[in-house]
């Protein structure tokens, strides 16, 4: 196929029929490459354009081959922190692969990023683990062909609730609480209570600082109450449901640890395990185990259909990996974060 037959145009509105075509492309790509992952949810996908996460404005492009929708580009240009970076996601419909569509979409991403003064592009792609589920290596080969370098490797782990032994989980929780004298729990759904928002903002700001980041040039985000409220509004607009458990230090009244489970509007049986963080001065009290198991219980009360939970950890994060595997999370695949200097 001659590359001149490929046309790339920006998508300016979620009401543009091209955006629904982009959604269909992403769905087809996920079904082909990651069949064990949940299908994309329209409410979340649409919200990327109508209600982007605070500090993460996105631009969207559709590629057509002879007038037929064939590929989609989502380019994020952070504007609160990491303003030298741009993150890129490229999807090509399986029927139109190996025709130069992905390369032209990437070239468009690089051109826009340069125009915006960005110094690097960052994206990720999956890889199979030894003895794990099959994964195409096409995304990694594509990244290498562009000259990108692997900067951080993460492993996706999945918890199948049908395999959880509730008695064992209860024993783990009881044992963890033996180390957590002087602490108590607080819970919230979707909106952080005002009395805890500054504590949560402080903890959230530590996430990148505390987590292993390899060679990835990603600076810690500055989270404040305004940014949290903007994030909550965007999440509500996407019809997401977020379950949070925090640990309160009784002597000071401060929330010193918390974790989040995020359930998209669809499907109802799947959730994403998001941030789990403990303030450094309060580590060593098994608070990570406490909040994760307590929050799992909390979410299941409100989400009876919940069956599968996915989470990512840096491959070199032994403490959090140990907590997850103790609960029952098992490795599924590897995800390589690629970085390309422009």
Describe the structure.
- The protein folds into two domains: 116 residues, Gcn5-related N-acetyltransferase (GNAT) (Aminopeptidase); 175 residues, Aminopeptidase (3-Layer(aba) Sandwich).
- It contains ten helices and twelve strands.
Rg, alpha carbons:
21 Å
Tell me roughly what share of residues is in helical segments.
Answer: 25-40%
Determine the CATH superfamily of the largest domain. Answer: Gcn5-related N-acetyltransferase (GNAT)
Q: What is the level 1 CATH name of the largest domain?
A: Alpha Beta
Number of separate strands: 12
Alpha plus pi helix count: 10
Average pLDDT works out at: 96
Q: What is the CA–CA distance across the termini?
A: 28 Å
What CATH architecture of the largest domain would you give? 3-Layer(aba) Sandwich
Roughly what fraction of the amino acids lie in strands? Answer: 25-35%
Morphology call = globular
How many domains comprise the coordinates?
2
Give unreliable regions as ranges: none
**Run of helices and strands:** EHHEEEHEHEHEHHHEEEHEHE
Q: What strand line-up does the widest sheet have?
A: 1-2-3-4-5-12-6-11-10-9-8-7
Brief summary of the model shown:
The protein is of the alpha+beta class.
List keywords for this structure.
342 residues; 10 helices; globular; alpha+beta; 31% strand; 2 domains; Aminopeptidase; 12-stranded mixed beta sheet; 12 strands
